[in-house]
């Protein structure tokens, strides 16, 4: 189980470092390689977490993972959407594509439409709040709340970004 928790928390740390690096990139016009590497590592660790969860929690039964994820959402929100697990895959795919774009063409990445940037932030925020705070264990919330605040701080508009 330690691999399950270690991979997701290290992944989320990569997300947070990457977002601070993107902020720095917008400020200086120089893409920080450390932040791009942190974001890439976060994506890989997020994918590893998904595989570990499928193995350890769901016994390699994807249909069961889909069903239990929907049931868990129904418990919290009052309705269970059968495709809710797939949102995790969309998140990882977007994050991966975003990180590759940022790494390969940092100048065009900076010029992408603001709506695209804010859609990414909305998706990332939704995933972090749901995964680390709402569905998180009590111990997980201790780390999830500051992580969420950190993301908001990284995204907070300032005159220099």
Overview of the structural elements:
It contains seven helices and no strands. With 161 residues, it is mainly alpha-helical. It has one domain (2-155).
What are the main properties of this structure?
single chain, 161 residues, mainly alpha
Write the layout of secondary structure elements.
Blueprint: H1 2-28, H2 33-56, H3 62-77, H4 84-104, H5 106-110, H6 114-134, H7 138-155
Cα separation of the termini? 40 Å
Number of domains: 1
Number of strands: 0
Q: Could you tell me the strand content as a percent range?
A: under 5%
**Helical proportion, percent range:** over 70%
Mean pLDDT: 94
Tell me about the largest β-sheet: none
Structural class: mainly alpha
DSSP helix count?
7
| Uncertain stretches | none
Q: Which of globular, elongated, flat, extended, rod-shaped describes the shape?
A: globular
Order of helices and strands: HHHHHHH
Provide the gyration radius in Å: 16 Å
């Amino acid at each position: 189980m330690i691999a399950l928790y270690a991979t997701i928390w290290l992944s989320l740390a990569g997300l947070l470092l990457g977002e601070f690096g993107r902020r720095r990139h917008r400020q200086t016009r120089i893409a920080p390689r450390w932040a791009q590497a942190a974001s890439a590592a976060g994506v890989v660790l997020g994918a590893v977490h998904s595989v570990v969860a499928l193995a350890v929690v769901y016994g390699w039964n994807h249909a069961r993972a889909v069903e239990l994820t929907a049931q868990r959402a129904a418990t919290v929100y009052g309705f269970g959407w059968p495709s809710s697990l797939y949102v995790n895959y969309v998140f990882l795919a977007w994050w991966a594509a975003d990180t590759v774009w940022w790494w390969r063409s940092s100048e065009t990445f900076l010029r992408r439409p603001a709506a695209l940037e804010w859609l990414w932030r909305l998706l990332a925020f939704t995933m972090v709040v749901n995964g680390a705070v709402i569905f998180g264990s009590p111990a997980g919330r201790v780390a999830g709340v500051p992580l969420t605040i950190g993301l908001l701080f990284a995204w907070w508009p300032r005159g220099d970004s």
